[in-house]
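Request: Mind sharing a record?
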Amino acid sequence: MFGFDGEYRRRPVQSLGGASHTCDRDTAIRKAALERQKRNELRQKANGAVVLQSYARSFIHRQRRKRAEREAFDAYLQLHRDRVNEDESMCFLLRRLSFFYSSRVAMDSGRLIEICQQILRNPSRLLQHSAHDPIWMLRVCKLLDACLLELSLPQSAGAIPLRMLETFTTVAAVERYVEDETLLYKYLDRVFGFLIARNYFVRLRQLLDEKCPPLDGETLQAPSLMAEALLQLLLRPLTVARRISAGEQSKVFCQKFITEILATPHTDPIRYFVLPNLAESAEFPFALLMQSLHFLLESNSVTRSAAESTDLDEEIKRSSLFYGVIQSSEVKQCKSQPRELFSSFLLNSLLVLDRKQLATLEESNLLIVYVRLIAEMMPNILQLPKSTLRNHAAPHRHTDSDEDDDSDESDEDEDDQPTSRTLDYDMEQPCRPVGELSSKERNCLLESIAILNETQRVDFIVQQMEPHIENAQLIYALCEICHNLMIYNKHAVYEYKLLYTLAFTPKFVRAVWFKLAAESTQLGFSAPLTLISKGVVPKQQGVDRTIPLLATFCMLFGRLLPTLHDVEFVEQKLLVTPIQAAIQHVRLMPFSIAEIVQMSKTLKDISLGLVELAFRSVLGHTDADDKKLRQQKQIWANLLNVVVFVLNQIHTRDLRLGFCPEAHWTVSRLDLPLDRPTDLPLTHSSRMRGIRPFQPIRDFTREDFENGPPMSTKQKRSITILREIPFVVAFNKRVSILQGLVAANKMRIQGHQQAFLQGPSIMITVRRSHLYEDAYDKLRPENEPDLRLKFRVQFVSSLGLDEAGIDGGGVFREFLSELIKTAFDPNRGFFM
């Protein structure tokens, strides 16, 4: 008898302990589960042993078979060396060579070189067979793949494999034996398709890194013959793709070239030798490259919209955990691939390759695609740290705007000293940390910014933009480029040629504003501008489309306004230089007065809504809105900055010209604490330093509480409005606020001791003969840090005696009068 465990039982097993013991149900289930688990483990071990043995036996069998084929190859080649070029011999040798060739076997290299030498003596029969017979085509493709692999070996002679690749992949060499042009390009299409599917570009890139000598800078001369040959190998499939541009295979060639050469981190041979030579080559298919990138861009847009629709479908995700896991992994995979493709290195490659190809963009109507591609990759510059701005500062900076911040010496000074006119936000980078950005990618991004703002490229974009000025995609793309440059560098409109050239292009400025207005009119109450004016965070799609348009318009128009004279601001047209006895009129001001009035009203509502969003109350918003604002605080802070900037420009112009109607700037619905001036602590600089819009609530320290309790959201909003856009508050209300603040400050400093000779005071003694010198010495900040107390002055006569009298206000008045007369005395020469 055999038991369940497989042991042989010679005699029955009897229990001598009495009745058998029964176990409960849970114990029986647990024992059965353990036994089932043991059986599964044994079964897995047995299956694993079978798989390992299969791999080992198959490997041993393949090695024996390859050894036998090598012996047969050598014997046949020795016997039929004079008949190698015959079809039967070539078929026998190529079949066996493609089977056993390995780069790890040294003698296989010699066999490959020998058969290649025999083929190169008479390649006509092999080329003609390959053009007509797919079997021979496959043999040639495998042979060329082995030659390419042979080039990467350190001890191999590269002349024969290079000659083989040149003979069988060059149009000029193949057309000698294949006269039919259709068959010729069909043959080359299949050959390069086979090689590219086996990492053709990756192998060439590795060979360039290994074989190319060190380079110090860009060069159009090949540093070695091997580098020149590898460059030609890199260019040949692209040349073939240009000739067969109607097929899908050409797009595959270009896409592989993009992903494996252009979008990957650049080495010195790629950046200094390959890219400049491709840019100068007339055979390089730049238009086809743009079309392939456009196809990838559209695919990226479809993937992104699908991911957004997936994120919105929360209920379906919650209904099935398994479905949600699969969906999130697919979305992550779809998102990561386009982001890796449109990298910083692809941006740099595109800007380098278009040096001689800008004219082709105009001929092929690819300008919009070109600008869209740059805009797609421009967010990569936000990864740059702020230190790169100081290291690569512009040689000069235009500061002809009265609203510009004066404290731009360093970022630390800007953080510690808030200004009184313009919001100066902490433009910290919310992107990945500085340590994760390599120095190579950092230099690549800085070079891309410099190339983008070259005079030739900027002039081309601006000149070719006019026929397409109404194209929405072109406007969005240009605004996206400008917006990313502004977020990276807040002085971008003064330092980058692209921005200040667009600022002085009235047609573009006008087109951007009317594109915003058209969207608002079309969407109605759900328009992003309308929602922002009401203090509501719009949807992500609206933010991505509207904020770059609005921020770019405000910055460009704010840059243009200070350069316009009042006559140019009001006049519809201005007379300029006569050309060929004909008077030419140009419009310098993009908008009419009526349009400016409506624009100022819209911008005023937007600025109030942004202030409400910057300091959100606890009630009336969701956690999702807070998360969006925290993730994009840099974008929102920049938007508030530029909107306030241009609004102050328009208001300043209205003070001089008075083109807006009465009560146009004031807002009656503002809730400011007029009866409680202590609720507006405008005088406490330490507390004012903590007001930063779109920032999370920070922890308060002991020093913060020494100056009073933390400010509420209402206080922060009121202070921001009074400091940045005070004209929205009526003048009499501002006077009441000022009087209340002065009275509160006086009460805080002097208390109730405000009668004659009561309360704290500043006692100074001055000589009448040296009034200015003594006043300057006694009232310096080192001696009197707080000048808000009462002054009591004691004069000393020219004889050195104290003058009689008690200062109850009259002596101080006399002191001020004499001090002003002395300070403005022409004999002193302080003021000419």
Q: What stands out?
A: The chain has 38 helices and four strands.
